[in-house]
Amino acid sequence: MNFSNLQEIKTQDLVSQYYEEKRYALSYSRAYHQWWSRKMLSFVQPKGRILDDGCGTGHFSEFLKGLDVTGLDISARMLGYARKRYQKVIQGDAQNLPFTNDYFDLVLAKGLLHHLPNPQRGVTEICRVLKKGGEVVFSDTLNSVLTSLPRRILKRSKHFSQEHKNFKRSETIKIINSKLSIEKVYYFGYLAYPLLGFPDIINIYKYFPAKKIITPLLIKIDELISKIPLLNRQAFGIIILARKNN
Known about the structure:
This protein is α/β, with parallel strands linked by helices. It has helices spanning 6-23, 27-41, 76-82, 119-129, 148-154, 169-177, 192-196, 211-225, and strands spanning 49-53, 68-73, 88-91, 104-110, 130-141, 181-188, 237-243.
């Protein structure tokens, strides 16, 4: 199989073990990612054929049991873990999806676009494989005043390839809106996102006591901030529900 973005594949192969053994394994980080996945799915009613585009190790699967889901990722090592959770997994490039037109009813793209050399191509491909009226839930990075510097510092880590991006709100909206109709935008990730979500990159939270109390408290604080106009845009992440028009 011929892929052009070999550096990104190398990076994803490298971090797959960190995802499996830390990001989705440590109790507090797992709790945060479960909240994150549930929040994405709260915007839709999953049914029909579903594509987990950029599925990673397949941890979305715990919320999609009994459904017709295909996991796709460019990293063979990520898929090695995903096969434990999905019955159908395919190694493929999100910029050239190996599916026919109008095939899926729902696409989930958690943290996908900012890894692609050509994110516009990734959205075009999602639109192509979606049925008319089909939905897609994106979740991606948000470059804000408060998040710009931390992300520039952390990008020096071996966990990121040169393809890794940090989108401004306007960039994400423009890329998605070019092919799909945006129906809902939700900002998330303030305190809980950096403290809970990425212990494979920086594990500040290991020094905190009473994790069972602090974890839900941080998530609740984040949910409250997400409801405050203007302030909520200073987030680490954005979730967008979009639809392929009839």
